[in-house]
Structures
1.
Amino acid sequence: MQLVGYSNSGKTTLLTKLIPLLEQKGLRVGVIKHDGGHDFEIDQPGKDTWRYREAGASLVAVTSQTKTAMIEQRPLPLAVLIERMGQAGADLVLVEGFKQEAYPKLVLIRKNEDQELVRRLTHVEGIVCWQDGRYGDFPHFSIDDASEIASFLFNKRNK
């Protein structure tokens, strides 16, 4: 399920509330974040993995007793990322962003003028609102009701 909305609509904050609720329901949750147009950097200059990438490695991985990270020097389509999350054991993949992709979406509406997103986007499954209002015939949730949203996602996943 995608969570989409304009900048500062609460996507990340909502995700951080949903993840533990869904994990408590027994789901292993994967999250994919779209960094629209930025060249994010998870590596630290001067560290070994950074030096390997700077030397031209197309793939660099680092692993420890508690986690693994792999850096690829190319963008990947959302479908590939979702598939990889599933292969890694995710029962549910939550996606922040990627508005134009054709996956089920929860649209976050912070201000009245944000509601045009509902008309513009495809595969809208529900609306998460900061204020009272109806934006189409979709299920509506308050931004403050993470528990209800988590139940909605859990039930959608299990259909």
2.
Amino acid sequence: MTITPEHGHLTRVHAPEGVSPGTGYSHVVWGTGRFVAVSGQCAFDEKGEVVGEGDAAAQARQVFENLRRCLAAAGATFDDVVKLTYFVTDVAHLPAVRAARDAVIPADRLPASSAVQVAALVRPELLLEVEAFAVVPAQPPATAPGPALIHRP
């Protein structure tokens, strides 16, 4: 079993004993600190327009940029991500999703992940959606949003 402690607050287990190693993900990731959940992100730009209609690679790049911005709002980065869930309208889009992920997450810091093929997403031109869970150190960074920016229903 390979256990990789990182950043002092996250540990990744790429292949627990008796479990076949995953290709492109860690089987187990745990950490201590603040939990951050990022809603599924689609390929929308800041105006709500779809980026890359019909192009899984372009949509995946936009999705990971949106994830980066959402993580930053919580004082997190891709280094803090412990779980990604991919929703794709066709599993043939997964190589494009992995390429976009690999551009922002080093191979030695891969989170746990799941991929699910779905019949449709919120709009017909969307090909994929990705949600993220992260754990950041317990002390919020100085750049974290202040109470005035946090919405609580």
